[in-house]
């Protein structure tokens, strides 16, 4: 387990944020950590489940940052598929 910086943006937002995640965090936790900075601030809350998109593909919810091949400071998008 190690701190791992990523850039994140939530669907419907215009601000890219720098978010510290953990190398062992599943994508469900990464989505929550990124969305925390936008939902109910600039983006309305949505009841649908969140997913993480990286380089155009939606990642499995149980994949870790390392499993998904994410590099430090890569941009991850939180989307509602």
From TrEMBL:
Key words, A-Z: Monooxygenase, Oxidoreductase
Name of the protein this chain belongs to: Toluene monooxygenase
GO terms for MF: monooxygenase activity
Organism: Pseudonocardia bannensis
InterPro entries according to UniProt: TmoB-like_sf (IPR036713), Toluene_mOase_B (IPR009355)
Pfam families registered for this protein in UniProt: TmoB
């Amino acid at each position: 387990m190690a701190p791992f910086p990523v850039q994140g943006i939530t669907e419907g937002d215009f601000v890219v944020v720098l978010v510290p995640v953990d190398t062992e965090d599943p994508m469900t936790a990464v989505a929550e950590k990124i969305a925390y900075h936008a939902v109910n601030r600039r983006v309305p809350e949505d009841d649908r489940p969140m997913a993480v998109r990286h380089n155009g593909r939606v990642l499995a919810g149980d994949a870790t940052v390392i499993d998904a091949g994410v590099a430090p400071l890569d941009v991850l998008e939180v989307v509602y598929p």
